Amino acid sequence: MLNNILGIPAHPLIIHVAVVFIPLLCLGAVVYALVPRFRSKIGWAVTALAVISPIAAWFAKASGENLRDRLVAAGFSPEILDKVNQHQSYGDRTWWFTLALGVVTLVLLFMTSGSRRAPQHVPVGVTLAISVVVIALAVATAIYVFLTGDSGAHAVWEGAVP
């Protein structure tokens, strides 16, 4: 599963979904948390991103694990595998931060939705606290997306192009 797509390793293709949607979730969640007047305009998009982004991160992680296993089986050098392991470590953290950001963002969306199912008259302090958590998770997630991508690029391209 998640090994090849049309004869090409799946991981480099799948990561593009995560690379697009996770930063959009970070941005959308922060705007939603900080600018209440935009909530009605972007709520649907942030909801979709909060669901899609963790799924994309999981597929990127799973396909990366499969690619790493193939590199080990092919006998790649310890130097390259060390870089891949560092990249995988960042990718694992990216998955967890993305999942946490998605869940907490969905909680914020629900609390501020005005739905009959949502709690009525939520104290401002609760909404503010959840917003602070969303912003902190968005920053951490964005940092790990960068670290993951940067370490992956170095693992692939370092020494390959003069």
From TrEMBL:
Q: Where are the transmembrane segments?
A: 13-35, 42-60, 94-112, 124-147
Q: Which domain of life does the UniProt lineage start with?
A: Bacteria
Q: Where is the DUF2231 domain?
A: 7-161
Q: Which InterPro entries match?
A: DUF2231_TM
A matching Pfam family: DUF2231
Which key words tag this protein in UniProt?
A: Membrane, Transmembrane, Transmembrane helix
Q: What is this protein called?
A: DUF2231 domain-containing protein
Q: Which organism is it from?
A: Asanoa ishikariensis
